[in-house]
Design goal:
Two copies of one chain form a homodimer.
Chain A: E1 2-5, H1 11-19, E2 25-30, H2 33-42, E3 47-53, E4 74-80, E5 82-83, E6 88-89, E7 101-104, E8 121-125, E9 136-140, H3 158-163, H4 173-188, H5 191-211, E10 216-217, E11 229-234, H6 240-249, E12 264-267, H7 274-291
Parallel strand pairs in A: 2-3, 2-4, 4-7, 7-8
Antiparallel strand pairs in A: 1-9, 5-6, 8-9, 10-11, 11-12
Helix pairs in contact in A: 1-2, 4-5, 5-7
Chain lengths: 292, 292
C-alpha cells in the first residue's frame, strides 16, 4: 500500500514504532549523516545493531554485501539508499532474507527504476524528485501494518494513514497537486526509465570532468558515486569561496557543500537538465583555467 | 515562542506528550467533533477529565464559565475556541487559574483580536486563515517546554521545533511562503482589528438573514454563534440537495454541511469577502421565494 504523510524526518521514529512489533532489535547500516539520524531516533525505541559502517573510511564507500553482519532477531534492516550530503549511493539492494528491508529513498526515489517488491518499506521525502517539501511518500507491505507500539501517536501509525487513503487529517493538498504535475512531467520524459538515462549521462559527464582534473576531486568509490548528489572539493581550498561567488554570478546556484563536510555539492536531481550540468562543467573548466 | 509544525491533528497527541510532565491528568471541555478528537487522543496518554460538555444539548451552546468543573490535579485545560463543523464559538476565554490554558484555534485564529498572554499554548492548522494545508502554528509559553514524556518522538517534541526555529527538518517551504503573503494581505486589511470588523459584519448579515426567515434555521445560542462557520438547515430538508445544486450553479460552492451533521454550512473565513456573503444571502432569499 502506498500513502502520503507529513515530514520525512518523522519516519525515523515511525519506523521502529510501527515495525518492531514483538521484537526489540533492529538492524541499521551506517553510511553517513542521514543513516545516523535514523539510527539516533531508532535507539529511543529499539536495540539498534549497526550491522555495517564505513565511518572509519570517512564514508567514501557503502559496505559490501558480505560485510553486513545481520542479526537473527532484528525486526527489520534499515539503510539509506543515497546519502544526500556525502554523495554516496548503494549500487545494490541488500539481501536481508526473511527480515523486512526498509529504505530511506528520499534523495534518489524516481531517479532510476527500482525493484519495489524487494522492500518491506520504502519512504521518501518529496522535496527532491517528487514535489515541494512537507510531504512524504511511504510504500509498505500490507502485512507489516497494524502492529504499532502502544505509545505510538495516532498520526504516527502507518495503518491509520493507509486505511484512510492518506486522508486521516487534512492533507497538504497543494503539495499533492504539485506532485501530480511532477508525475505527469516525469511520464513525458519517458518515465523513470527515461529519466534514468538522462540522470546517468548527467552524472557520468560531471564525474568525468572532476576526474579529468587535478584541480577538482571527489572521494567516493566509483561504484558508489551518487547519480543525484555530486560533492567535490578544490585542491586549493582557499579558492572555494571565490568559486561559489563566480558560480553564482554565472547563474549556478546552491553549490556550497553541507556545512558538516564543506567543499562543493552539485545536486543534480531529476529537475536539473543535462544542459544545466553541461553549463556547470563548462564553468568549472573555465574557473580552473583562469586559476591554474 | 512561536513555531511552525506539520499537521494540526498531530497536536492532539503532542499536547499531552509535551505538557503532562509529572502529572497524569488533563482537563478538557467538550463542545463538539473537534473537542472529541482531541479528547480521544489525549486519553491514550492521560486521565482526561471532561470538565464540561454540552453534548446533552446537541452542542448548541458552549458551557458557561460557572459550569467548568476544573480539577486541581490537571496539567492543563484544553478547549476548542471554534467548532468548525458545529459552528459554535466561545465568547469568552476560560479561566483555569494557575493551570495552563491550551486552545485549538484552528478555525478562528486571526479572525479577531485575542489576548495571547492568557494562554499556555495556542495551536492552529493553517488551512483556514493562514495558508495552505500542511502547516500548523504553535504559540507556547517557554516555561512549558522541555518536559516531554520519554516515549515522545523527536518530531513531536515542541522544544525541538522551538530550539530549531521551526527548521529541525526541512519545513514546508512553499506553505511558509504563502502564509507570509497572507500575513501581508491581512496587514493591508487593517490587520486582525480590521478583518474582525469585516468578519463581524459578514456573520451578522448572514445570521440576520437566517433568523428573518422560517425557511432557514441555525440552532446555536446567539452568544456562541461562530463568526467563521455558519451552519444552517432548511425547514424542508427535501429541498437541501436542490439548494446545493442551484447554489453551485450560482457560483456558491462548498455549502454542504459536514456529513456527520447534514444541512448546509457557510465557512466565511477571512478570505471570503463581504460581497460573497451578500451574494449568498441574495441567493438564499431568491431560493426561498421560488420555493415558498
Amino acid at each position: 500500500v502506498l500513502f502520503l504523510q507529513g515530514g520525512a524526518t518523522s519516519q525515523f521514529g515511525m519506523i521502529p514504532m510501527n515495525l518492531l512489533g514483538q521484537k526489540t532489535q533492529a538492524d541499521y547500516i551506517n553510511t553517513g549523516i542521514w543513516s545516523k539520524k535514523a539510527i539516533a531516533e531508532a535507539k529511543r525505541y529499539a536495540q539498534v545493531n549497526v550491522v555495517a559502517s564505513t565511518e572509519a573510511e570517512n564514508f567514501t564507500r557503502v559496505p559490501r554485501a558480505d560485510e553486513l553482519n545481520l542479526s537473527a532477531e532484528a525486526a527489520y534492516l534499515h539503510y539509506t539508499s543515497n546519502e544526500t550530503i556525502g554523495g554516496l549511493e548503494f549500487d545494490y539492494i541488500p539481501d536481508a532474507g526473511q527480515t523486512p528491508l526498509v529504505v530511506d529513498m528520499s534523495s534518489d526515489i524516481l531517479s532510476q527504476p527500482v525493484e519495489v517488491s524487494r522492500f518491506g518499506l520504502i519512504y521518501a521525502g518529496a522535496q527532491k524528485n517528487i514535489g515541494p517539501a512537507g510531504l512524504t511518500v511511504v510504500i509498505v507491505r500490507e502485512d507489516l501494518l497494524g502492529q504499532a507500539l502502544p505509545t505510538t501517536p495516532t498520526m504516527y501509525d502507518y495503518k491509520v494513514h493507509a486505511d484512510a487513503d492518506s486522508m486521516h487529517n487534512t492533507p497538504p493538498t497543494f503539495a499533492w497537486y504539485l506532485a501530480g504535475l511532477v508525475f505527469k512531467w516525469l511520464k513525458a520524459q519517458g518515465g523513470v526509465e527515461g529519466i534514468a538515462e538522462i540522470n546517468l549521462r548527467k552524472a557520468r559527464k560531471l564525474y568525468a570532468a572532476i576526474d579529468a582534473s587535478d584541480f577538482y576531486a571527489n572521494p567516493i568509490a566509483l561504484p558508489n558515486r551518487s547519480i543525484m548528489n555530486v560533492p567535490f572539493t578544490l585542491a586549493d581550498t582557499q579558492l572555494e569561496s571565490r568559486f561559489l561567488v563566480e558560480a553564482e554570478a554565472a547563474g549556478l546556484l546552491n553549490l556550497q557543500g553541507h556545512r558538516s563536510v564543506g567543499g562543493m555539492r552539485a545536486s543534480i536531481y531529476n529537475a536539473v537538465s543535462e544542459t544545466a550540468v553541461e553549463a556547470l562543467i563548462e564553468f568549472m573548466q573555465h574557473f580552473e583555467k583562469t586559476r591554474a
